[in-house]
Structures are given as C-alpha cells and as structure tokens.
Amino acid sequence: RVTDEQVQKFLTECKSRGLPCELFGAATNARNFVNWKFSPAEESLPRTAQMLSRAVDIRLPLTWEDSDFLTLCQVVEESLAVVMPPVKRAVITKDIKA
Asked: How far apart are CA 47 and CA 71, in angstroms?
C-alpha cells in the first residue's frame, strides 16, 4: 500500500527532475471532479475522492516527440525507485509454449 507521504515524495522527486505533476485530487486541479462547476456530482462520491487523492496527474503535451516520452518514463522510474522499496519479483524459469 502506498502512503500519503510516499505520494508527496514521488511528486517532489518528479518535480526536482523537471517533470511537472500534481494530484488529480488536489483542490487546484481542474480535472478533479469536485472542482467541476459545469457538471457537479449529485453525491459526495467518497470512493472516487479517495482514489483521486493518490492518483498522479502527468500532462502529455501534443507537441512532444517520442524521445520526450522516453525521458518521462525515465523520470517516473527514477522517482519511484527513490520512493518505493524494492519489490521481489518471481522469476519464471520454465518456457511457456503456445
């Protein structure tokens, strides 16, 4: 499980590497449904709000080149490596045949 502190540290790490990002659930994020004045939710939607409280918004400009996306992935991977503990992964040694 990811903590609020880890999310904030991830955002800080990304920003320190030049990648602007924020939480979808931030009060300043126009894509956060609670900020929608044109189509407000009829209910409070607590599960949606909880999910958005940790969802990271990284904008992808239309003018980016393929190499920009590779850089974005590198920044995300490096930032995650700083924030998250290593995960043990199972190694499959058996060949799978179709």
From this structure: 33
